[in-house]
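hey can u check if this looks right to u? its 271 residues, i copy pasted from the old doc so theres a chance i mangled smth
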Amino acid sequence: CRVSLCAVSYPNTHYMAAGSTQRLLPRRLLQLGDGRCLGYALLGCTQDPVGTVIYAHGWPSSALEATGPAATGAQRHRLQLVAYDRPGVGASDHDPGFSFHSLASDVAQLISHLRLDPARVVLMGTSGGGPYTAACASLIGTGGALGSQRVAGAVLVASMTHTSGPGTAGLLAGMALSNRLGYYALNYLPHSVTRTAVQATALAVRPVLQAVLAADAAPGTAASKLGQQLHQQHPASSNSDGGPSKPDRSNQATTPCTPSTAGDSAAAATL
């Protein structure tokens, strides 16, 4: 898989801090081989699923993104949805040596930790999560350096991709000038663009998250209702104090499946 984007891991003090998103979607923590913790959540059908989708969130975002239509669709088709936070996001520790290869290693360890059958695993990435899923598909899904077995497939939804090199002629045609300039900057000044984008996004989003957290404490607000709903759906994933859960290596199912009338082949076709 060819990608020309810069892989970035954010400091843990950024706008998607663990304390904020943990309140809305409690995470499980997996201690990785290098000592870091990877935050993830189990959504959809977690009891006797027909398959598992490993979900890579967009940018800027976190695993909380998966609580929408993706989780609903997974439940309907008896699929387990494993949504993880990329390093430095949500409940996942910052990785100073972050790269596409290191992320693929993290995901490979997550698959192994959950004792998933690779033949029943589909990798899925949306928007800014697409390149990371492509990297995982290349390094894990083909039985390559990080995996001896192939995964069932990979799905990229509205994904970012490389915009230079073979096969990219006309790829930016029809985009607004501001978008084309942004992609050109990513191609020729990736590190400068990344630093500026992370800083600008943090400044823009932090006040919004602070407002959401303040509203979360006020009864009757939309944020409060959302937080209560998510905690009712995933009560076993957090501590009583609302902080990140301890590293959890149990594989006990927590969410009963809704009987599916679609069958395995239809579920696969939906993916």
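Helices lie at 18-24, 69-76, 100-113, 130-141, 177-188, 190-216, 222-233, 263-270.
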